[in-house]
Amino acid sequence: MSSTAPIPTPPTPPTLTAQTDELRCTDADRDRVIDVLKSAYADGRLDQAEFDVRFDLTMKAKTYAALEPITRDLVAQPAAVAPGPAKPARDLLPPPTTEERLLGALAQATTLVPIVVGPAIIYYTVGKRSEFVKHHAAGALNLQLTLLAVTIVTFGLGGALYGIAWVLATAFAVVALAGAPLRQPWVLPIFGRGGPYEKRD
């Protein structure tokens, strides 16, 4: 006679109400959310990049209102509707601030003077605390390194592309100022591959 092992149920995150969502959460509340993320990652509903972003948001959360969106698409809701697929990690990130937009535009504008030092500094400093700035600094670095590689391979003939690069740098800076992500599939993906702002088809 064979027996069937019970199917484990995922942990339940904190339940929110209109009265509690602005209350400050505890370490135990964060631990419950992390358990949900681990379960979703093990099930394949989150990839590594999405798990890392949500884990970071969980550890930084101060209130129940900040915790709730992190697992909203991972836990069954009271309504009799099956939860949809997990949202991309970038959809959980807060909109970029004015400062982040300006720094992202600055990183892109450094291509006007093709020296990788500028975007590299932004990538390794501000990029540590802002995924948006890191995304645009990585794009600027990738573009400059791609142009450099083409110039070397063509024995200097690729230098003519820098005129086009100035136009692209201006356009990409405008995109950053608008607070939008940027996809550059035609450049070498040396920096930023797999970040939350990288779109997946």
UniProtKB/TrEMBL annotation:
The chain crosses the membrane at residues 102-126. Its main location: membrane. This is Putative membrane protein. It is found in: Membrane. Keywords: Membrane, Transmembrane, Transmembrane helix. It comes from Nocardioides panzhihuensis. Residues 23-74 form the DUF1707 domain. It is a multi-pass membrane protein. Signal peptide: none annotated. The lineage of its organism: Bacteria, Bacillati, Actinomycetota, Actinomycetes, Propionibacteriales.
